[in-house]
Structure formats: C-alpha cells, structure tokens
C-alpha cells in the first residue's frame, strides 16, 4: 500500500508540490545564524541562512566544516587522534604572533611572538625563523626576548609593508585550508576529527584517515574533488540536515527534485536568475521570475521563439497548463472511424 501511495502519476506537478512542501515549513525556521552542538564543537550556520546558502549555490559556505573519520586503530585512541588533529590544524604566523612592528629606517620587521600560542602549536622561535628564511629568502634571527627580527631583501617602505603582510599570513604548520581541527567522540565511543576548513584532497592522502567516510558541508569542494553526482548527494544531505536541525520533516523525494534540478546540467547551479531559471529556454518563464522587461526586450531584439511547453509561461498567458489532465490530448475514436470510411468511399 505504501508503494502504491508513493507512486507518481503521469502529469503530476511534482515541482510545484516540492516547492510548496519545502517553502511552507521553511517559513517556520528560526532566523538564528549559529547553532551550538556542544562545547567542543565548532559553530556552524544553520536554519534559514544555511537553507538560502545551499539553494543560492554559494561558492563557499559561511562556516565550512569537515568531518574526518579515522581508521580503527586511530579511532579507538584519543592520543593518536589528538596527534593527528595537531598535524591537520592550520597554523599561520599571525596565530602565534601578537603583532608585527615595521622598522622602515633599518629596513626590518620585528615579530612579537605569543609564548602561550607557540606552546599550544608545539613550535619554537628558531623553527619559525628557519621556515621564514626558507619560504621568503629573508634573514631571520631570534632576540633575547624570543621574538623574531626579519630583514627582507627589499628597500622601499611599501615593499616592507607588503612583506610584513605576506609573512604574517604564511602557513607554518598543518594542512592548507584545513582550519582548526578538534577531536570529538561519537555515540559508539570512537574518536573523529572536526575541522573548521576544507581540503579534502590533502586530508584523504593521510594514512590514518578513512578516505571513504570523509565529509564536508562545502558543496563546491565535493563537486571539485568527487564530481557532480557526489555534489547532488551533498546538496540533498545538507538540505535534510538543515531541516531536521529545526525539527522539520520534509519528504526526501521533494528535496531530491531540488538537488537533481541544481545539478542536471553537469555542474552546480543556483535556483534563481543566475542559475536554473536564467538558463530556461522559455522567454516568458524567465520573464515571470525576475527582470521581466530585460528578458522581453532581449527576446524581441534577437527574435526568440517560445514553444509554450512549460507551466509558468502558460499560466502567464492564461493558456491550458500541461499538468494533470491538461497534459493529455484526447481524440474521439468515432471521428477517426468516419474519416477512414469516407477515404474508402463507403
């Protein structure tokens, strides 16, 4: 009986039903931006802002997050998981420095280091000096106060300022783009890592990581690494998770239609004038959404033709909509029989 109920009849307006089924509960979503899932967890965008972010196909999520599952030997040991999190965590010079003081007269930059931050990152001033020398070719020395003095091979004050900015943003340790990694524990007692950034390609290469179970909320990162089918699944998962966090239940079939529509062209498109609607062949369908005059003027200028095959354009012009009984054209059998008899001369 369930299977019979779930069947979609020919001509059923599945798009319209999906839009209503997502839109109606969507109005009940809380407008708060951040959600705290625990003290050790990172903050992630949720609710309506996240829903808009997914459907607008934003290139980067406001709060990227990656869930890194570990192989069995690492998942059972907190020490091993913590060691791996330390390797993944992105440490830049600005994270372990209090400030950079530019000395234009002596053509050098003084980096005042934060001792507590250095200890947390498990690094020494000498290590940082060596990394800066190797990366930028500048002379680096450690002062008595355990600070750094950098002498770049530049003369102009603007070049010294540019060097100072680049050095402060330089990566000292960890994986580029991975952000901060935190060890968490699931219901089964296994440890896993949550990070505030994205770099699936680099993290998958780590031996201790279970590459099959890695997950990110960045849809375009999934598309870039795994392809459009995986991006379609990521859109579906993120929509389901966002709605469930708000205590809303929407049938997955409605959400699948949205995910399919967003990825049907072979890449990830937004729902709007720059995405799915803007790519429609029908002039009236594009004009019915946004920028009506622009679409009609361009269509007239270039002599476009509208075959009136979709729903929106037929509603706009008051014609029979090709949905439900409107999608069926009937022909009376008697008329056809009489026509045949006439042709035979009976």
Explain what this protein looks like in three dimensions.
By secondary structure, this protein is of the alpha+beta class. The protein has 4 domains: 2-63 and 218-263, PTS-regulatory domain, PRD; 66-88 and 177-216; 91-173, 2-Layer Sandwich (Gyrase A, domain 2), CATH 3.30.1360; 282-346, DNA polymerase, domain 1 (Orthogonal Bundle), CATH 1.10.150. It is 45% helix and 13% strand. It has 17 helices and 12 strands. It has helices at 2-6, 14-26, 47-55, 72-75, 78-88, 93-96, 115-121, 125-136, 157-168, 200-204, 219-226, 228-245, 252-263, 283-289, 292-302, 311-316, 333-344, and strands at residues 34-35, 44-45, 66-69, 91-92, 97-103, 108-113, 139-142, 148-151, 171-173, 181-185, 191-195, 215-216. Strands 10-11-3-12 form a 4-stranded antiparallel sheet. Strands 5-6-8-7 form a 4-stranded antiparallel sheet. Strand 1 and strand 2 form a beta hairpin. It is elongated. Residues 33-42 have low confidence and may be disordered.
> How does the helix and strand content classify structurally?
alpha+beta
Overall pLDDT confidence: 84
Q: Please tally the β strands and state the result.
A: 12
Proportion of β residues? 5-15%
| Global shape | elongated
Q: Classify the fold: give the CATH topology of the largest domain.
A: PTS-regulatory domain, PRD
Uncertain spans, ≥5 residues at pLDDT below 50?
A: 33-42
The H/E string reads HHEEHEHHEHEEHHEEHEEEHEHHHHHHH
How many distinct domains?
4
What is the C-level CATH assignment of the largest domain?
A: Mainly Alpha
Main sheet strand line-up: 10-11-3-12
Q: Helix tally?
A: 17
The CATH architecture of the largest domain comes to Orthogonal Bundle
Report how far the terminal alpha carbons are from each other.
52 Å
Which radius of gyration do the C-alpha atoms yield? 30 Å
| Helicity level | 40-55%
Q: Characterize the main sheet.
A: 4 strands, antiparallel
Q: What does the oligomeric state look like here?
A: single chain
């Amino acid at each position: 009986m369930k299977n019979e109920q779930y069947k979609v009849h020919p001509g059923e307006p599945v798009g319209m039903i999906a839009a209503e089924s997502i839109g109606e509960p969507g109005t009940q979503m809380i407008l708060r931006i951040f959600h705290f899932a625990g003290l050790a967890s990172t903050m992630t965008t949720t609710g309506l802002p996240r829903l808009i972010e997914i459907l607008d196909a934003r290139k980067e999520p406001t709060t990227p997050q990656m869930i890194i599952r570990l192989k069995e030997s690492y998942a059972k040991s907190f020490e091993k998981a913590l060691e791996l999190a330390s390797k993944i965590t992105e440490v830049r010079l600005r994270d372990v420095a209090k400030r950079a003081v530019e000395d234009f007269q002596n053509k050098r930059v003084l980096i005042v280091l934060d001792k507590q931050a250095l200890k947390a990152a498990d690094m020494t001033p000498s290590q940082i000096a060596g990394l800066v020398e190797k990366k930028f070719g500048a002379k680096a020395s450690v002062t008595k106060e355990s600070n750094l003095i950098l002498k770049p091979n530049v003369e102009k004050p603007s070049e010294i300022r540019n060097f100072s900015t680049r050095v402060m943003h330089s990566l000292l340790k960890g994986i580029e783009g991975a952000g901060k990694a935190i060890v968490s524990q699931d219901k089964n007692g296994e440890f896993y890592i949550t990070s505030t950034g994205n770099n699936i390609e680099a993290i998958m290469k780590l031996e201790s990581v279970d590459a099959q179970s890695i997950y990110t909320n960045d849809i375009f990162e999934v598309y870039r690494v795994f392809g459009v089918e995986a991006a379609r699944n990521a859109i579906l998962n993120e929509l389901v998770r966002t709605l469930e966090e708000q205590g809303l239940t929407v049938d997955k079939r409605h959400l699948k239609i949205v995910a399919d529509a967003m990825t049907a062209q072979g890449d990830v498109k937004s729902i709007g004038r720059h995405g799915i609607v803007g790519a429609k062949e029908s002039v009236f369908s594009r004009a019915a959404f946004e920028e009506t005059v622009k679409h009609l003027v361009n269509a007239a200028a270039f002599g476009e033709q509208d075959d009136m095959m979709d729903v929106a354009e037929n509603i706009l012009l008051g014609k029979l909509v090709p949905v439900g009984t409107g999608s069926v054209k009937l022909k009376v059998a008697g008329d056809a029989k009489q026509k045949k008899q006439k042709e035979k001369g009976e």
